[in-house]
Automatic annotation (TrEMBL):
Protein name: ABC transporter substrate-binding protein
Keyword hit for Signal: yes
Organism whose genome encodes this protein: Ruania alkalisoli
Source organism superkingdom: Bacteria
Residues that span the membrane, as ranges: none
Keywords: Signal
Signal peptide start-end: 1-17
Residue intervals of the Fe/B12 periplasmic-binding domain: 59-334
Amino acid sequence: MNAASAAPARLAPAALAGVLLLTGCGSAVRSTTSESEPAESVTIENCGRDVVVDDVPGAVVGMHPAQTELLLRLGLADHLAGQAQTGAQALPDDVAGLAADVPVIGDVMPPSREDLLAVEPDFVYSPTTYEFTAEQGFASIDQLDQAGAAVYVATGGCAERRMGGEVTDLFTDLENIGTIFGVEGAAADLIAQSQADLDEVEAAVAAVEPLRVAQVYVDGTTLQAIGAGIEYDILSRAGADNVYRPDQAAFADFFAATVTPESLAAEEPDALVFSVYDEAHETATREYLETTFPDMPAVREGRLIAVSSSDVFPGTLGNVAIVRQIAEGLYPDAF
């Protein structure tokens, strides 16, 4: 996925302090279905609440292209009543045609309460709980419940999970969505493929000498360090020795922290990973890093690795893809 495919509105510094906080919590399937005979009623624990689905949903809204993609890859195109935040990220070419006739609601931001309710959804699948912030004019989970729509939030998108999120949280989502829609086989295949991709990277980096890597987010001259959550897990799986870690005081309560250029320079990281929302942001970030840290090993060695902001969203196949992208950027000879 191109680093330019994510939405600036979702990853601005204000969003780092607000939107991205609204991500993370485990969920457990409590009833099962078969591929041929979906259960009439399914109850799944998600973000500390029960999601009850009485029948296979037939009017589904994917609240972000990452969730829409997963639904399409599970063979559920005919179940879609809407797709949201389509301006945030393009669907991959191999599935985009399947959504050509699905109504678009919202651009780079979640749809308004009125626009979402207008398509009369019976199931809404979202990357985070932010999409249901009533204060932003979005339909709340309670309002959707009253309208007869069940809501499922990506496991990594529940608030309680944000600090300890992992790439494999996606597998929980696939298992749960597979159960809800009676497509366990398709979900299992997607999990197996993703796990194989992770295993391949793990084997490739097993013998490398780990490089010290810092993950940052730059907006203008504001520098954020990322030290916890799914981003930390992504770097670890890519074979990195994380400069910033959850056991450090700066990341005790939140996965990101503002740092000074001097403190980052003092760490002398071998590589920098940074998320970007479009090509202009990537260009500006590279220029800032190269100008501010000309003597840093990461800059001298040309190890500046840009990843799409959308690929660090919870519950996306991008979480798996950028493990390989980062590992190949750090250890090209291992692949």
